[in-house]
Fold this sequence. Notes:
Blueprint: H1 4-15, H2 27-36, H3 43-55, H4 57-60, H5 62-79, H6 83-97, H7 107-111, E1 152-154, E2 161-164, H8 175-195, H9 198-215, H10 227-245, H11 248-262, E3 266-267, E4 270-271, H12 273-296, H13 309-324, H14 330-339, E5 355-360, E6 366-370, E7 375-377, E8 384-392, E9 399-402
Parallel strand pairs: 5-9
Antiparallel strand pairs: 1-2, 3-4, 5-6, 7-8, 8-9
Amino acid sequence: MKSARERFVLAIAMQADEFPASTAATREEAMARAKSFTNSSGAYTQTALIGVLGCERRLIGSGAAWEGMLFLARDLQRRFGSWTEFANAVVGELDAISDGRANADLSWWLRDPASPWQHVAWNTDLADPLPILRMTCARCGHVRVRPWATAYVYCDYCAELVDFDAAFTRTATAGPGYEALVAELAPIVESALADHDIDEMTIAQHRLFDAWLDTCPLAVSIRVRRPDYRARFVDYLAEAETVAAFDAEAVRLRAEMEQSMRRLSIAGDRVAIEPFWKMVDAAFAHADRRDQLAQTHGIYEMHPDAASRELQQRVGWSMFAQAWAPFLDDGDREALLARCKLEPERTAVLAPTPITWMTCGTCTAHVMASSGATWMICDDCGDRIDVGSFSVCPSCHTLLARGHDTGICPICK
């Protein structure tokens, strides 16, 4: 079941179904357009862009597209007092653009009982209900202002890992190829467990996680596009799973957690609450044991982003809470956030900030650097690039944000 916020935004987007497609070539251009079309732009223009963003979810990512649509919907709600005022403004702008030839008629939307506008109030609260996703960097204190490419959210001022956006995982499926590999490796995994063959288990886990990165790229860091990062990430995941597979207590607690999950029932958009909290207890017990193993075996230190133990745990519980929050009422949602030690953060994700366009020195992609930023993660190649002490190519005069610098300009090499 969609929330009132979602119904409000979609009620506007549906009315924009027949507007022309976007000409945005990149996700940054699409989101920059969303921010540039507020305040002074007409209602028709903003409504059209909401529809465009809805169609561009594949280009800019579902999480970023939703934020752009919500950003514009809030601006429209602030500028107009009712659906009627909004409709009059749209019609007026269309008539002006077409010299009166548009013949725009929104009476169906305003009066027909089947219209979405009749089922959602104009003054619907569009504030984020206790947002879970963190936007403020724990290292430098800056707020993430650009959209992000995959589930891993990085600070766009210092390139620190900030949080995990579970919205990118809701449509991520491993697919038949990965499932076939799991079936192929199952006997090897069983044999390794029986023989306590750690090396054989590690090799199998490497193959599984390496294949998973290929099948679910949006569910992991954009940095896996860098071979060195990918190798370290697979090592990290495979080592953690191998260690847990040979620990009897971790195996027992995982089985109890999986059993508690099988006992869950969901009716409509709500989970049965008593078995849910039993599942949460089992999940915490399993996570506590995995935490002990990670500290004992140095797994936290293997994280390719050099994230602290506290940050890795925070990201893990953020993933968990984001997955279950839509199925809880407000009271249980707040209780879950408190249990996971996730303090809600009410930050404007798309707050305007001065930007400088640069070129990634690794892959030549256009990079939108916020004023005051020092390091960023390139959303095309995944490299960590220096936007604070950039350089200018003496030959082509390109403003370069250096990453794995070869000393050669990638534009005019």
